[in-house]
Specification:
single chain; about 220 residues; about 40% helix; 6-stranded mixed β-sheet; alpha/beta; two-stranded antiparallel ribbon
């Protein structure tokens, strides 16, 4: 495994990455004009980590910091698996930097050709770390873990760029026996956005209220 060195503490990295995400508008905060997620949830925040791939400095930052997380938290990893589609590219960059084998996991088996769900080749029994871009409820990420386990490898953990930190996701990861480490999270974004004036104190209150019960949140009170 190639060596990647980093001396920043984790809290600093969380805030630094939160700022980088806001700088490239990968995170949009609209408390007064909520987004609608695919799940139907109304949300004052939208995160698109794939935008980081378009900015070389941010792309490199994510790659190197994910590598650092893997080396410090999952040094036993023998291979990397990216979760389609958002983490395919970043997972490949990480695997290349670390000199590890790589594959990616589809949401479901392909309906033609070889019918693969795991694309690439991983050694049976290999210790694999999963790379993800975003954790919301955790459902799609843990489906990828299940597919890898069925494929015949050992998932030692998962690293991701960002998590909303929903209790439902934390419980799902505990039940699945998967350790998750992320570069940044919702709290760090909220803190950094407030410190830099990206959002107002009123917006901060709306965002905090949404975070308590996102499934039932209908928008800011008028």
């Amino acid at each position: 495994m190639h060596q990647v060195f980093n001396c920043k503490d984790m809290n600093s990295i969380k805030k630094l990455f939160a700022q980088k995400l806001m700088d490239v508008k990968a995170i949009k905060l609209q408390p007064s004009d909520p987004f609608t997620w695919a799940s139907g949830w109304k949300s004052p925040i939208y995160t698109d980590n794939r935008k980081t791939l378009s900015f070389p400095e941010v792309r490199s930052f994510v790659k190197l910091e994910l590598c650092h997380l893997i080396q410090s938290e999952f040094p036993e990893a023998e291979a990397v698996a990216g979760v389609a589609t958002g983490a395919i590219a970043q997972g490949a960059l990480v695997a290349d930097q670390l000199g590890l084998s790589y594959a990616y996991v589809r949401p479901k088996p392909k309906d033609h050709g070889m019918g693969n769900q795991v694309e690439g080749e991983l050694k049976k029994g290999a210790k694999v770390v999963v790379v993800e871009d975003l954790i919301s409820t955790g459902g799609s990420s843990l489906k990828a873990v299940a597919a890898l386990r069925e494929y015949g490898v050992e998932v030692v953990g998962m690293v991701a760029s960002f998590t909303y930190g929903f209790p439902v996701a934390e419980e799902a990861f505990r039940e699945a026996g998967v350790r998750l480490i992320t570069l940044s999270d919702y709290n760090a974004v909220l803190e950094q956005a407030a410190e830099t004036g990206y959002i107002s104190e009123q917006d901060k209150a709306v965002l905090a209220e949404w975070r308590k019960n996102p499934a039932e949140w209908a928008g800011p009170q008028r």
